[in-house]
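Appendix B, example 12.
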Amino acid sequence: MAAGAIEEQVKALVELHRPELQQLVDQALEAELARLVDERIAARNGNGHVRPEPPPADSVTAKVCTACHRSLPVAAFETGRGKCRECRRSERNRERRSTPVEADRPAEPGIVTPA
């Protein structure tokens, strides 16, 4: 068969079954539209704002420190921590400086400290 003859047959079959084809296209379009609406509704957080998509775990290259609010490379943070290493270190140093040394602490009642 020649290409032109096949094309004419396809056109004739499409014209013959146009209502059924249109109905199938409409059904597919409605299903796709319903899926998109469901996705959009699922992405909202209840007050109409769209939740941002979190980046994939392997693509995160920077984090924001919860103490100094700087955006730093992930390497500046310990695993599972929100504060950068520098802020954690300075916090620990402040705590150490504010904690009295054993000799500076007052003796508890009933305990004799050697002189």
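DSSP finds three helices and two strands in the chain. Residues 58-98 form one domain.
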